[in-house]
Amino acid sequence: GYTGVLQAMAPDRFAAAINQAPMPRRGGGFMPLDWFANKVDVWRSRNATPAHVLRDVFEQATTYAEARYRLCETPMAAPAIFSLVGCRPGELCIIERTETTAHVHDGMRATANAWQAPAWSGRARGAENAGRVRQLSVLPAGSTADFDWLAPPVLNATTRLAAIFRPATGRFLAQGFAGETPATACLAAELSMPQAST
């Protein structure tokens, strides 16, 4: 149900995705207490969740620069990691977010579910984060025409969706997974570009 919210593309504007950020150690470092303390903080927060922030960005932002600004500056109810790509050279970044602070990694980068920002801490989500980042970081620019790069550890027991978005052309490729096994056929499509009003 979150497809189109946790990852999406706005043709001729930008594409973005959310990775789950490390869990803050608000319960003394004991996992069940950390989890509970963080859920209480989200429930008490007056700020939108990262998914709602990203959905709002897709509905409101008209450019990569505006999307980048909103993802960096909008207060959120929980930490998140955003991948953002635009249509022009140089329009790509990873935005690591706490509820009130952003650390941006501009340029060709990859992310998983662990902080890369210096001195940021938390309980990393998922497994083999460093290995997944390393594997994705060696892909040549523009090499993702299909899913030939999707192999362990990027492909793993918790994989549910693989997607490639090209906002400059409106083209995308998506496939559902149940762990390392494809669960859907591969969907390739081209979204129509918005028409300029006259």
List keywords for this structure.
4-stranded antiparallel beta sheet, alpha+beta, 4 helices, 198 residues, 5-stranded antiparallel beta sheet, single chain, globular
What does this structure look like?
It contains four helices and nine strands. With 198 residues, it is α+β, with helices and mostly antiparallel strands. The strands form two sheets. Strands 1-2-3-4-5 form a five-stranded antiparallel β-sheet, covered by helices on one side. Strands 6, 7, 8 and 9 form a four-stranded antiparallel β-sheet that branches. A hairpin with a 4-residue loop joins strand 4 (92-97) and strand 5 (102-106). The longest helix has 14 residues, at 31-44. 23% of the residues are buried. The model has no long low-confidence stretch (mean pLDDT 89).
Low-confidence stretches: none
What is the N-to-C order of secondary-structure elements (H for helix, E for strand)? EEHHHEEEHEEEE
- Structure class: alpha+beta
Number of strands: 9
Shape: globular
Which strand-content bin applies to the residues? 15-25%
Largest sheet: 5 strands, antiparallel
Rg from alpha-carbon coordinates: 17 Å
Number of helices in the DSSP assignment: 4
Residue-averaged pLDDT, rounded? 89
Share of helical residues: 10-25%
**What is the strand arrangement across the widest sheet?**
1-2-3-4-5
Q: Terminal Cα separation, in Å?
A: 36 Å
Describe the SSE topology.
Layout: E1 7-10, E2 14-19, H1 31-44, H2 50-60, H3 64-73, E3 80-85, E4 92-97, E5 102-106, H4 129-137, E6 161-166, E7 171-178, E8 181-182, E9 187-190
Antiparallel strand pairs: 1-2, 2-3, 3-4, 4-5, 6-7, 7-8, 7-9
